[in-house]
Amino acid sequence: MRRFGTLVAGAWVLSACGSTETDSTPAAPAEPGAVTSTTDELGDELTSFDAVTGYNNYYEFTTDKESVASLAKDFQTTPWTLTVGGMVAKPQTFALEDLMKQFPSEERIYRLRCVEGWSMVIPWLGFSLQKLLTTVEPTSEARYVRFETVSRPEEMPGQRDDYFRWPYVEGLRLDEAMNDLTLISTGLYGKQLLPQNGAPLRLVVPWKYGFKSIKSIVKIDLVDQPPQSLWMAAAPNEYGFYANVNPDVPHPRWSQSSERRIGELSRRPTLRFNGYAEQVAHLYDGMDLKENF
Amino acid sequence: MRRLSPNLLRIATHIGALVPLAILISDALNNNLSVNPIQELSQRTGKIALILLVLSLVCTPLNTVFGFRQALVLRRPLGLYAFAYAALHLLIFAVLDYGLDPALLREAIIEKRYVLVGFAAFLLLLPLAITSTKGFQRRLGKHWKQLHRLVYLAALLAIVHYVWLVKADVREPLLYGAIVAGLLALRLPLVRGVLKRLRQSWERSHPRKSTQGQRGESDLASSPEA
Asked: Counting C-beta atoms within 10 Å of the first and last residue's C-beta, which end of chain B has fewer, N or C?
């Protein structure tokens, strides 16, 4: 019933938006652009473009993964600004086009492991968050980075449901944010991000569960305390601040020791840090990762 | 409503219960089960089983509260279909999803409380499905009724299973929970007594031409599952 209601509400919003535009013809179906490789560094095949752009967890639109794309199709991503501030020497607000000029995108093929026990291999386009953070010069007190999604309940039907504490917030420890793997993504499959994938700017932290990779970011703040994420607020016993992919830390609902790669039928074992242990395990030396889940 | 032929109702029930299966098969054949088809199959069969189970529990109050006696014959098919979908749901979980992998299944049963209660609900439905025949009803006598009250426990466990499964938003499973709690409340002697008095006074002030209402009432006492 709720899903139906959301769909109806969404359809109403979409039709309302469509009527105000001069060109209301539906856009041609999106197609993938060129990629540099068809596998990740472990030899795993890329997940199909259709699956990557048609099966999305984006609760700002709906909890139904297959309806996000249609509900998000008219989401306005221009103009867009990103404000970077907090404990930094040079706070700055970037227009999207300036940001993309200043930090050219490169392709990064990463595995994405959802906390729900499914995974994909996605050819992202983006730049290391490190480059952006270095530009604004974090002060010595800065310990954590806080990210915030745009708040637009009029375009995002899920945000009109106050079951969750909107807007979506996520956080990283500063050293995690400065790791070269941590990406601000602007595209995938050789093209600009589509709204359902978190356009125009999203985070990608490949060694953490997918919900850490916050979408449609408008604000990044350097802070001295670990930010409370939306999921930590919703279910603190299930979703911790770190949320590193860890087959040894069970979740009450989904198997974290195994996963289903979208497009495959049998389960495969989940890798520690989603297969990126070599690059990131040192960040957690001496930490009990069962305590700090 | 009162005049609907029992056969028509029964046929409608069979069709209604089989249509979701037909849609499931058609979607499976047309590659229409999302890019995560096993999860989709699992969630859909679970939801259908729960809905049918709740519908099977609605039948008795339809008679006791509204005097809609024809609903009583639908309890068995609805309950058996619920059991069949629950069995399919369990098979999909164990065979398709976990590939009968003993290590994964052991981990799931030990670590995942939702698996435990879901499995318990299924185990409770199993003897009810087996003893659903007229023969068993006769042989078990008054014990049959006591045994079949377990269906409420099975439904509550199925709802707990659902609550423990959803990511964060428990409103939908709790809605099913509220429905089952309400249906259970209707079975309490106190509530039943009040409803019966209400109905009798309503019937006295609205006399009907036929005597169906009274017949329903007297049959209630001899009905094996009242």
From this structure: N
